[in-house]
Design brief:
By secondary structure, this protein is mostly helical. 75% of the residues lie in helices and 0% in strands. This is Tetratricopeptide repeat protein.
C-alpha cells in the first residue's frame, strides 16, 4: 500500500512539474520577453536578430517605439534605405516625430547623401529647435570630406563647443591643405626632363625609370645616326619619342592618382575619427546602459 501511494505521488509530482515547465516555456515567447530579448540583442550589437524579434512583437502590437528601434537597427547595419523608410513613417508620430526626423537626417549624413541633408538644413520647419544644432553639426562635418566645399573657420565651427572645435581643428587645417599635386605642372616638368613629373608626384621609381629609358633610347638613336645606321637610328628615335610622350601623359596621370590616394586616405582617417567621437552628436541611448 505504501509503495503504491508513493508511486502515485511521484507520478502526480512529475505531471505537475511538466505542466509548469510547459507554461514557463510558453512564457518565454510572450511579447514582453521577446521585447526584452530584442533589446538585449540590440545592445549586444546583434541588430539583425533584434529586428526579427521586434517584427514578431509588431505583428501583434502596433508600437511607434518598436518601429523606431527597427529603424535604428537598420541604420546600425548600414541598411540606410530601409532605415529612411522606417523613419519616414514616424514623422507624424506624436512622441517620436522629432527624434525620427533627426535620425532621418543622420541617416542621410551616414549614407553621404549630402545634397538631401542640405535641403533639410535650409528648411527651418523640418525639425524643432532642440535638435537643430545637432543637424547643423552634421551639415558642417560634411564639408570636411575632400570633395566638398568648405566654409571659413568663423562659420564652420559655429555649431561646435570649444572642446569639439579643438578636436576638429587638425582635420580642418589638413582639409584646406591636402597637398594635392598639379597634373599640368607634372606634365610640364616631364616635358622638360623626362621622369621629373613623376618624381614631383612622389612616384620616384617610375620617374627614374622613365629618365633612364628615354635617355638610353635617345643616346642609341644619336649614336646610330652618327654611325650612319639610319634604320636603327629612326627605330630608336621613334621608341624614344613614344616613351617621351607616354612619360608626359603618365606624369599627369600619376599626379591625378596621387591626389585620389590622398583624398581616400584623408577621408578614411576622417571617417574613423568621426565614428570614434560619434560625429560629435548626442548618443541615442534609448534603452542600452
Amino acid at each position: 500500500m505504501i509503495s503504491a501511494f508513493f508511486i502515485r505521488l511521484i507520478f502526480l509530482v512529475l505531471i505537475l512539474t511538466s505542466i509548469n515547465f510547459a507554461q514557463d516555456e510558453i512564457n518565454y515567447f510572450s511579447n514582453e520577453n521577446r521585447l526584452r530579448f530584442g533589446d538585449y540583442l540590440f545592445c549586444d550589437n546583434d541588430y539583425l536578430r533584434a529586428i526579427d524579434e521586434y517584427k514578431l512583437v509588431l505583428k501583434e502590437k502596433n508600437s511607434d517605439s518598436l518601429k523606431f528601434k527597427i529603424a535604428l537597427a537598420y541604420q546600425k547595419l548600414g541598411k540606410y534605405y530601409e532605415s529612411e523608410n522606417s523613419l519616414k513613417e514616424l514623422f507624424n508620430s506624436q512622441q517620436l516625430h522629432n527624434d525620427a526626423k533627426f535620425e532621418y537626417a543622420k541617416t542621410l549624413y551616414l549614407s553621404k547623401r549630402f545634397s538631401l541633408l542640405n535641403e533639410i538644413v535650409s528648411d527651418n520647419s523640418f525639425i524643432e529647435t532642440s535638435k537643430r544644432n545637432e543637424i547643423q553639426k552634421l551639415h558642417h562635418l560634411t564639408q570636411l570630406y575632400s570633395l566638398q566645399a568648405i566654409e571659413d573657420s568663423s562659420k564652420f565651427f559655429q555649431p561646435f563647443n570649444q572642446n569639439e572645435s579643438v578636436e576638429l581643428l587638425k582635420f580642418y587645417i589638413r582639409r584646406q591643405n591636402l597637398g594635392n599635386k598639379s597634373p599640368a605642372l607634372a606634365a610640364i616638368l616631364s616635358a622638360v626632363v623626362p621622369g621629373l613629373g613623376k618624381v614631383y608626384s612622389e612616384n620616384y621609381g617610375d620617374g627614374i625609370t622613365a629618365f633612364l629609358l628615354t635617355g638610353v633610347l635617345t643616346f642609341l638613336s644619336v649614336d646610330n645616326f652618327h654611325a650612319q645606321h639610319d634604320f636603327r637610328g629612326w627605330l630608336f628615335a621613334g621608341l624614344a619619342a613614344y616613351f617621351y610622350a607616354g612619360n608626359i601623359y603618365g606624369s599627369a596621370a600619376s599626379a591625378q592618382l596621387f591626389n585620389a590616394n590622398l583624398r581616400i586616405t584623408f577621408d578614411n582617417e576622417l571617417q574613423l575619427f568621426l565614428n570614434k567621437n560619434n560625429h560629435f552628436i548626442t548618443r541615442n541611448n534609448l534603452f542600452c546602459k
